[in-house]
Amino acid sequence: MSSKLQAPIDYLKGVGPNRADLLRSELGIHTYQDLINLFPNRYLDRTKYYKIKELQRNSAEVQIIGNITGFKEIAQKRGKRLLATFQDDTGRMDLVWFRGQKWIKENIKPNTPYVIFGKVNWFNGVFSMPHPEFELLKVHEQNLHSSMQAVYPSTEKSSNKGVTNKVMNNIMQNLFLETNRRFVETLPESIISELKLLSKSDALFNVHFPKNNELLARAEFRLKFEELFYIQLQLILKNLIHKSKIKGVPFKSVGTYFNSFYNDHLPFELTSAQKRVLKEIRHDLGSNAQMNRLLQGDVGSGKTIVAFMSMLMALDNGFQACLMAPTAILSVQHYQGLSELANKLNISIQILTGSSTTSQRRKIHESLENGDLQILIGTHALLEDKVKFKNLGLAIIDEQHRFGVAQRSKLWKKGPSSTLSNENETNIIPPHVLVMTATPIPRTLAMSVYGDLDISVIDELPPGRQAIKTVHRYDSNRLKVMRFMRDEIEKGRQIYIVYPLIQESEHMDYKDLMDGYESIIREFPQPKYQISIVHGKMKPVDKEFEMQRFVKGETQIMVATTVIEVGVNVPNASVMIIESAERFGLSQLHQLRGRVGRGAEQSFCILMTSHKLSQDSKVRLETMTKTSDGFEIAEVDLRLRGPGDIMGTQQSGVLNLKIADVIKDRDILQNARFHAKRILSSDPSLIKPEHKTILNAYREISKYKNIWNYIS
Ligand code: ADP
Ligand code: MG
């Protein structure tokens, strides 16, 4: 059986060399197996026959029984189109062909009953059907028809060159005939009976040739479950293997730094979410395995203090810690904030960025290597080879979506040497890694994408935060917006104005930014008003200078590109104006809005747009004005963009899903994950006889990567 499914598609009856080439090049189908795993996009109801009188102007696909009574050729700009009059006992309509007219005229028998099938259009008072499928009624009645007909994915080329949907259905039928409809089961008996799943063979048959809706639903469920089950199994196994193989630096105890900070210096009461996450982290750090944890928390949820307290755990055990941020501005801010806390405990802390001077660097390198320096904050500069730690125990990465996997692994190499050196393996113990992101990823997706990381979530904001009032305003309301700005500045508040910046139209974007800046200066003249500007073309020192003026309250308005997107914390800034808001993605808008609402004052976010808005832009703007829940926003974002655009999904299996959908099938995903976990917790190596099916299937997956290449 296995060998049969691996056979080249050319061998299948009804395929032949030309179609085989098309199947390969257009649809990626090389073998029988690929074909059987080409799942239909949708199904057509072929139980109903319409009368011409019943047709609606909704361009639905319908089948009709009737006769062709005559042909007409109509000249048009290029070539001509062939028109046939088609009629039943209730009326008449047109059939239209733009190609293949000669063949049609020669082969269609006039005044003979046919069943036609296709999409109807309504034009100039007449219904017409372009390029209908048709079959002699006599033949139609003899054939065995599934009441629901599968519609397969196709490309323009494949269907134009003769691999029509009808052809696909035929060759699929031949495949089932040749294989006797029998396929090896790939899920264990226990799951099949517990969830009352269809067998593999029945599921495959019914997904291609459904007898009825109920069987189709069960077939789809079974195949989706299976697909998600094996992805989860893979991810969970990877995580287990990681934990058992990769030893971490053991942090034996919580010590004086942590306790004294917790008891005497904590600037506020931790939220219960922060406490829970700290416990999760503590648990990881206390185990023998290396921590690899993703910390998700909305903007302003208080990740920094969690990071700091995790660092204290490292320091308490005699290890160093580092925190890497994506921009210099953010690094500086972290450095300033954390220095205040560190000083209370006499902890040594330094910052390293691209603009650190040679002598600063030299000092940092030296004190890192001899262990005098306990905490290092910085940008990518931390990754440079020259930066060597004496004993790095914990590396924290803020805003992880800006860093790639390669950078993460560079960090790993900065861990301390193992004393129990192993002959073959490198004797470096990777530091524990905590990755923090403010871009919430819907849980279901996170499970698929980061299934091999452990995930913590801060799902609660510190108390006393006021919701940010968010409104959408058109450019034509600009005067009112200016007046509002003046009033807020009068009250002593500060304002951000952000302009989009995308690579493709960088030039135009800078022009917009500078024009905007000019007009703001005109509206808000010196010396009464002071204005900062920050954008990516400025030198880091200049950027920082301008930023600092704003942080210190010397300027009231900060005009910027998205440089300020991440992490900047200016509690007195209470108004965020986003220009051309329609050009930003949802998660970016949410990030930007998170820059305000950090102080005690009521904060505002104003989304400025032109009147020309696409449907998606409208949804994004409505979502922003309606909710401030990052997870809810992430869900909408995911729905609008699909998982493909979300960082990190590229490497995971979610993009290659053939039948399941991470958004729509999240219940199945949860269910599949539950079962995969349960099986692995009772039998992590899959050695029990009842798990043989899984082991076999799993081995096949690892061999083929694409999980659908294993049925045999
Ligand atoms: P983010 O998760 O976006 O990095 P921060 O760590 O910068 O958020 O925290 C945002 C603000 O909230 C900071 O000013 C911080 O001091 C404050 N904060 C954090 N945790 C709490 C808490 N439990 N109670 C009160 N304020 C808090
Ligand atoms: Mg932060």
Automatic annotation (TrEMBL):
The keyword Electron transport does not apply. This is ATP-dependent DNA helicase RecG. Plays a critical role in recombination and DNA repair. Helps process Holliday junction intermediates to mature products by catalyzing branch migration. Has replication fork regression activity, unwinds stalled or blocked replication forks to make a HJ that can be resolved. Has a DNA unwinding activity characteristic of a DNA helicase with 3'-5' polarity. Belongs to the helicase family. RecG subfamily. One of its GO terms (molecular function) is hydrolase activity. It catalyses: ATP + H2O = ADP + phosphate + H(+); Couples ATP hydrolysis with the unwinding of duplex DNA by translocating in the 3'-5' direction. Keywords: ATP-binding, DNA damage, DNA recombination, DNA repair, DNA-binding, Helicase, Hydrolase, Isomerase, Nucleotide-binding. It is an enzyme of class 5 (isomerase). Residues 284-458 form the Helicase ATP-binding domain. SUPFAM superfamilies: Nucleic acid-binding proteins (SSF50249), P-loop containing nucleoside triphosphate hydrolases (SSF52540). Gene3D superfamilies: Nucleic acid-binding proteins (2.40.50.140), P-loop containing nucleotide triphosphate hydrolases (3.40.50.300). Transmembrane segments: none annotated. Its EC number is 5.6.2.4. The keyword Isomerase applies. It comes from the Bacteria. The gene is recG. Residues 477-644 form the Helicase C-terminal domain.
